[in-house]
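FAQ: What does the model actually see?

It sees only this:
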Amino acid sequence: LWGTVPDVIELQSEAGAAGAVHGSLQAGAKTCTFTASQGLLLKIPNMFKIAGELTPTVFHVAARSVATHALSIFCDHSDVMATRSTGFALLAANCGQEAMDFACIAEMASLEGRVPVLHFFDGFRTSHEVGRVELIDDDQLRRLVPPALIQACRDRGMSPNRPQVRGTSQNPDVFFQSREATNPFYNAFPAVMQGAMDRFGAETGRQYRLYQYHGAPDAQRVIAVMGSAAETVQETVDHLLAQGEKVGLLKVRLFRPFDAARLLDALPPTLQTLAVLDRTKEPGADGEPLYKDIATALLQAYSRGEWSGEALPRICGGRFGLGSKEFTPAMAKAVFDLLGGSALPAAFTVGIDDDVGGLSLDYDPAFTTVASADWVQAVFYGLGSDGTVSANKNSIKLIGEREGRYAQGHFVYDSKKSGAITVSHLRFGPQPIHAAYEIQPGQADFVACHQPQFLERYPLFEQARPGAKVLINTPLQGEAFWNALPGEVQRLMRERQLQVHLIDAYAVADEAGLGKRINTIMQTCFFALSEVLPSAEAIAGIKAAVEKTYGRRSRRIADMNLEAIDHALAHLHRFELPAA
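And it is asked to produce this:
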């Protein structure tokens, strides 16, 4: 963007990276970094220093679990919440579009307000999702980030030409006063951040608020939440509004510095019950961080006579989604149902069956929203490193780049990565797709099994709706295939009248010289069966992707893939289910 080629330097750990960032910032260079989980914890000592010195920077974090009783590489907000006393602003993005936009907004605000920003989004849920976004171009970035603020940041760099005192040791006579002297910067920062959002909205047409309400203007029941779950709750709210229910959602984007006045202004004055959902757990606390901040804000406003409602709303806090545990519309509906009851628990969990503490809410897993009726939903089971995920990412791009078509891909990996199962969840539709959850049982229009051994190990077809199309890679045909299936698989196929299609993809790959790489073959069959795109258009797109991926690097590999694509459909056969 600025005509500079960066140097690439490898540090020993995230602690070293944080030290390098701190040193670079002290020299006046514009610097940012990226991390998550335990790596973020290693950066905390430097974060205290960076914030204490009022040095603009942005840390981008794919929020993930911190190891406790066990290691989890998956999503929750325990790493981010561990940094909330460092002095960094905490800004939450709910989806891929917001993650890109907030990266820019965070830089704008940090440069102007001098408060460093931790910009976070949900690890694996948002960070690993593939979808269509509206890009910010370079000219827009240049207009949004004033050169004068960058120059001011550089001018504050340590230099013998601009001598100043920094990094001293202080005794009790002045330390307290110096800490309090930062208050004006933090008091002003929410307005600075909202101003950056407003300028960004004027430039791009995408307007954001620090605390954004969505729902009925006279809602009585509201859920407040941060991160990707806000997308799921929004989908649920829209569904319930269409049924005449008075519900709403408060999207919390700026968690630190916490702006109680702006948050309360965003809530409807008709509010009667409020549930605050946290994607973290603090053992021993009488509530999680977001819940306690909002509860305090409401109580203080009510005690001062500043709450616009008639009475103080009843409020409760709940935990969800730890370690990437699913959070679905059915679970959001259960929270709204709880808010409509006569009594609220002091705390609750949703998404698990808590038979230890008895805190979990019951929910109806069959509940769906009207949004899913417009989607084509497909689930693919593959093996880590077999190319299934790569092929599905190409499919998302192939469809999502077409005008009036939207696509979403979410990929579930086992923590053992290569050689373990991968599950790809793909959605396609005529409107933007905000479903931040996996395709639920009984909802998939298409299910593909890329490895025949999975038929005996996993309940692959529970996600298939009645009449769904099924694609199976297997060397078996006819009666031999049917007799090799577990009885439960046979029962499910008959019960749901699945349309089963078979292909020996490994034989096709072997004939083309591709070895075990079956991804383009299975991708071709998916487009032929799903009819998401006209078959000829889809195959032309797949071939174009092959040329782009392999054409320059190896003509031989490109030609082998093209041959496999041409032969795939000739080896695809419909299997008629035997009579019971």
